[in-house]
Specification:
The structure holds two protein chains of two kinds.
Chain A: E1 4-7, E2 10-13, E3 19-25, E4 34-39, E5 46-50, E6 54-55, E7 63-68, E8 71-76, E9 86-91, E10 99-100, E11 104-108
Parallel strand pairs in A: 2-11
Antiparallel strand pairs in A: 1-3, 3-8, 4-5, 4-9, 5-6, 7-8, 9-10, 9-11
Chain B: E1 3-7, E2 10-12, E3 18-25, E4 34-39, E5 45-51, E6 58-60, E7 68-73, E8 78-83, E9 92-99, E10 109-112, E11 116-120
Chain lengths: 109, 122
Amino acid sequence: EIVLTQSPGTLSLSPGERATLSCRASQSVSRSYLAWYQQKPGQAPRLLIYGASSRATGIPDRFSGSGSGTDFTLTISRLEPEDFAVYYCQQYGSSFPLTFGGGTKVEIK
Amino acid sequence: QVQVVESGGGVVQPGGSLRLSCAASGFTFWSYGMHWVRQAPGKGLEWVAFIHYDGSDKYYADSVKGRFTISRDNSKSMLYLQMNSLRTEDTAVYYCAKVFCTTGTFCALDIWGQGTMVTVSS
């Protein structure tokens, strides 16, 4: 089973600032099958990034993903008020179980 | 409008059973694999189970293997999760989610329902 470790646990930033979220895998993620999701309180997760760097439909270009192998990053170039939420990475590589990271909460400073 | 809507949650005693349903609409349900993912109160996301687009293969998390059964009825665009021998640690919001790619197995999850709450308590 691939364990995903997200850091930091909480990121305190102001609107307009840049957010950099990390996701580290315990072993290489096959074919960069790494996704990022955003979840707001009381809501379902929303797919932001798949294949490590491809934006899902309707996702603003201030969200970008990068990385390969065991190290992945989600960057939000300029935080908008609606971006304050919890972010999860997930690997969906070539075997089960699928696994999620523990999440990074981006909060208003 | 592409959507999935879960139902069937509720309060059940430890050792009891519950069947969750997920109604899909707005897409060709029979072309997509489907997942169940859960989230315990205040906790992160945990993958539970997956079923191929045609129901031919099913996969489970170790924590539910032998107790939960995922199934689907493509004629009705419905996904199910039969949960038996429920434990207090199964208490969570249960989400159904569609995979992003047609007939694929290892794909991101692009459409999620709002979830249904399952509480296991005496």
